[in-house]
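Two proteins, back to back. First:
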Amino acid sequence: MHRRFSVLMLAFLAFAGCGASCKKGADAAAQDPQGDPVVELPGVDTSALVMREKRTFSKVVHEYLSPCGEPVTLDVCVKEGRACKKCLPAAQAVARYVGQGEDEQKIREYLAARFDDKSVRSIDLTGSPAQGPSSAPIVLVEFADFQCPHCASASPIFDDLIAEPEFKGKVYFVFKEFPLNIHSNAEPAARAALAANLQGKFWPMHDLLFQNQERLDPQSLDAYAKQAGLDVTKFRADLDSEAVKAALTKDEELGKKLDVQGTPSVFVNGRKFVHIGREDFVDELKAWLRLELQLLGQPTAAPAPSASAPASAAPAPSASASKK
């Protein structure tokens, strides 16, 4: 009997001890069982992360340097409330993508692409067809292939994006030709669009080519030229002109210089748009543009509530064809 009482008493004390420690949730969450400190930052919600994810988050923000060039890490930059506007959104991005299962290397690559000024590239826009005000705070450049199905899916997305009240007048959308060698009709379609541009009809031809990308043979191109209201005789002459060939070569060489590997490839104010995480292409691009406006000190309007487009309707850059 005495032995049984002792066992029960020990079990009770163990239970009571557990209860006492479980009440200290905040302290427990801030301590890694491996003994490493877990970083908690003001303005960054990591409450939904499990300990393994908190460990990854802490490691990245404690090692990644401030994107403003200061000799401090992200965590120090945020904790000290430094003037760098990029530190907090960068740390928030780390927490978000860690929670979505992205590995550390991809997150570091994203941070470099999105926040490091070394990632900003100079893009010559001279002569390229464009929509929106050239003075807009955001310059969005797309490198596309008229035979690429992902580019066809992206086309109405860009149309809707620049017309949305949230972004209207704030985006200058520029189109660059980047026909892929794996698509036999992409190069003549690109020349057809550039020939139409010489007559001020690029966008009508652009739409027709994407709407009919299964039919891009010479006879069909002539039909689209007529449908777009072009002088067909001039259009045919311009297709093989030196001016059109030079414009196409210029875009292709620029794409190679910018290390464009597939289509559609998108650049926002000289930064290549990188799509990672669980959000679809559209939502991730909109979030990128909102942050860009925020970092530029531009007023931003809250997006109007609407049903999200199915993920299947969004082009997946990871599935884009690669240039060979």
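And the second protein:
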Amino acid sequence: MSARILLVDDDPRLAELVSEYLGQAGFRVTIAPSGGAGLAQLARDPFAALVLDLMLPDMDGLEVCRQVRAAAASYSEIPILMLTARGDAMDRVVGLELGADDYLPKPFEPRELLARLRAVMRRRHHAGTDPGSGVLRFGRLEIDGGAREARLDGEARALTDYQFALLQALAAHAGRVLTRDTIMDLVKGEQLQAFDRSIDVHVSRIRQAIEDDPKKPRRIITVRGAGYVFAKAQD
């Protein structure tokens, strides 16, 4: 059965073009023209992913993203790919901090949308069968690939699906310095062009979740001019 995608966008021409392109790729697309309609659709039907425009007539995509992640329902963990026409990178950073897994600036190539969409979906689809789905232990920190959960002192820490995948990739290569491009390749499984500091934003959010002092990280360490290294030896 083909995967169902919810596209929340108030531009009927763009929505039709995206729907047709994704349909040719084997997806079934449902279009919602507003944030409220999108949230209502999510509450009624199961979807494999959400493609969410930032600019909507009733509420912006940031608010939709926030409500989705805060919902006490199964759809709260749906992969979110955000579309934005705004030039301000801060909107994209805020979207990532609210729980979006990825974003794509408008105008975009449909094939890049398809590649990014498949990437966020693939991470969830292979969660239970990935070779790294066991439990990685680093002192008081446990990274449980099977449960898609990071635990500090036995307590689950709040991470989005993308952030967990990023943490798992870093931990699987503990002790090695990884560039941002390498991290993106490991997490996405696609060689996609890096975009405005998204890795840095996600690392910051992960540090908030797993570090004792996020301002003085001892688990995920920044290597200036190179990238990040996940510490092998931890308390």
